[in-house]
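User: Could you write out the 3D structure of this protein bound to NAP? I've included everything you need below.
Assistant: Certainly. Input first, then the structure.
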Amino acid sequence: MSMQGKVVVITGSNIGIGLETAVGVAAQGATTVLACRNAEKAAAAATEVKGRAGTDDVHVVSLDLADLESVRDAAADIHSRWDRLDVLVNNAGGTWSERQLTRQGFEQTFGVNHLGPFLLTKLLLERIVASAPARIINLSSVGHHMAWRGMRFEHLQSEKRYAAMEAYGRSKLANILFSRELSKRVAASGVTVNAVHPGPVRTGFGMDGDLKGIMGWGNKMIRPFEISAASGARTSIHLATSPDVEGKTAMYWVRSKPGHMSTHAHNDEQATRLWEESEKLLASVGFAAP
Ligand SMILES: NC(=O)c1ccc[n+]([C@@H]2O[C@H](COP(=O)([O-])OP(=O)(O)OC[C@H]3O[C@@H](n4cnc5c(N)ncnc54)[C@H](OP(=O)(O)O)[C@@H]3O)[C@@H](O)[C@H]2O)c1
């Protein structure tokens, strides 16, 4: 589809897969919005995207997914600056060796990878629906298979024991379950919701001291075998721009094709429960969203 006149918001787009996704959609003519937590890095990324895509229609919104107040402000900023939103790419994410908390006290992997994007999407949903046909793309991972015990709702905050890989796996399973539940809720509106595994991609992921010990070592060892960020962004760009995926929803994509999801990722009951639990958690800290 032509991206002229379309507004695309990409979270965590100052680097890595998000940055390359921004270059890809901007080059096709979209108004491209980089939603990032660090103003300096975001400004540098905007300059890079403008130069590489050959357009000035690239903008920055401040967004820290570890702070729900920042999520609310970012949604308000987007509402006030653009009267449509055709594509939302929930790309930002991370993995942390040690248990840390978001500003509102949620375990950070769950908070940044799921709860923040959940709130952001809800706050932008009316605008997305009004812009239909529109698309929501959630960056998941093959790592969702590591959540072999499912969402473990009694253990969402990893309070008793924190296992980084399991927490990451569950947050990436949450990205698929969220896509599944949301796609049902907006089915009649012409909005599609899909999840993506970008591949093993050589980015800054886990490289800035967030992963320690054996996990940090393993992350470094696999780097020579990983694909470039530009290749890793291809599936996101395909889902954001291609007419071939028009109307396709509630799917999990790998290399721009349907991929293999875990049994838990097919579980509608877990998807509905995750939605309800997420709403309760947000309401418990004063961030109930429509
Ligand atoms: N790389 C892979 O092999 C791989 C594989 C499967 C899935 N994925 C998924 O792909 C997505 C992008 O990852 P990547 O590889 O491109 O990683 P990356 O290079 O580390 O980029 C991650 C982005 O997320 C942002 N971010 C982190 N915490 C944030 C917060 N609290 N608020 C707002 N933004 C935040 C980062 O901002 P800063 O620059 O400010 O830290 C950065 O822009 C992630 O969702 C990841 O789970 C990656």
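The chain has a mean pLDDT of 95.
User: Perfect, thank you.
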